[in-house]
Structures are given as C-alpha cells and as structure tokens.
Design a protein that fits this description.
With 161 residues, the protein is an alpha/beta fold. 43% of the residues lie in helices and 19% in strands. It has a single domain (3-122), classed as Rossmann fold (3-Layer(aba) Sandwich). It is globular, with a radius of gyration of 15 Å. The structure holds 4'-phosphopantetheine.
C-alpha cells in the first residue's frame, strides 16, 4: 500500500493545494494531509481551524485523511507508515527551499521519498498569502480558495475600510 503525506501550513488551504491533494489521491492509496507548524511563519488561523478547513474541502476524497502535526514531519510520516512526502512546486523559486527540506528529511528518514508534483498552470500564481491579502480587501476570493471556506476566511480577515 502506497501511503503519502502532504504537509503544509494551509493558512488557509487554496485551490492550488486542493488540486495537488486531488491528484495525489489518484496516485497514492492513502494521502494524509498534514497541517503542520512552520516555525518561520506566524499563522492567521489556528492549527485546529486550518485542519477544519482542509477537512471540509477534502471530504469527497475517500482515501484522504487530515491530521495536525506540531513536531517533525518525518516523525508524523513514520507514525502513519508513509513512504512518501508530497510537495507542490509552483515555480523555480519554490525549488531551492523545497530541495533543501527534501534533503534534510532524507537525512532524518532515508526510507521516505519526497515526490514533487508541479502545480497546475492555472494555480501557479496562487498562495495562501495572496488569498489572505485578497480577503483583507474583501475581494472575490472564490477563485483562490475552495467555496466551502470563503465565508469563514472573509469573516476573519476582511477589513471594512
Ligand atoms: O506551507 P508551508 O509553510 O510551506 O509548509 C512548510 C512545512 C509545514 C511543510 C514545514 O515547515 C514542515 O515540514 N514543518 C514541520 C516541522 C519539520 O519537520 N521541520 C523540518 C523540515 S523543514
């Protein structure tokens, strides 16, 4: 059984993330979406809120499960018996950091392979940062985050100017 972990901050989950989850769910038997702590970021949504958003939008994928992780990703992956870590790449600029993290994770857990999926061309410009910025200005965020969560994202971030 091929088990994969797709980690990220998901602050909040975007249509780009969802596209990777959907494609990964076709490649792997089981995909654990790991809502994790990125120590270099200060998230807008709590870990539990971010995980709830991801659960709400991935319910339709029978082989996708969502969990949170406050420790090392490789420990999470081992606990789930996962042999793969999935990362989405939008542009060359993502590569340098992701390459470094993949090598680090390989040092920590040589049995786990990092697999890169290229972002769908439609979503290469997308990021959670952009989604949050748009929501702040009450812009139409339905093109960047799944419709199930647009109301909650706007309710938290919209500034009435
Ligand atoms: O969506 P992000 O913020 O780019 O995701 C980064 C994340 C959360 C996947 C990365 O920071 C991570 O793996 N954090 C868990 C802690 C860990 O294992 N750190 C070592 C690898 S950087």
């Amino acid at each position: 059984m091929k088990i994969a972990v797709y980690p990220g901050s998901f602050d909040p989950i975007t249509l780009g993330h969802l596209n990777i989850i959907k494609r990964a769910s076709r490649i792997f038997d089981k995909v654990y979406v790991c809502v994790a702590v990125n120590s270099s970021k200060k998230p807008c949504f709590t870990l539990a809120e971010r995980a709830d958003f991801v659960r709400r939008v991935t319910g339709k994928y029978g082989n996708v499960e969502v969990d949170t992780c406050e420790g090392l990703l490789v420990d999470f992956a081992r606990a789930k018996n996962a042999g793969f870590i999935i990362k989405g790449l939008r542009a060359v600029s993502d590569f340098e950091m992701e390459f470094q993290i993949a090598l680090l994770n390989k040092k920590l857990a040589p049995e786990i392979e990092t697999v890169f999926l290229t972002a769908d061309e439609k979503y290469t410009y997308l990021s959670s940062t952009i989604a949050r910025e748009m929501a702040t200005y009450n812009a139409d965020i339905s093109k960047v985050v799944p419709r199930e969560i647009t109301g909650d994202v706007l309710a938290r971030l919209r500034r009435d100017i």
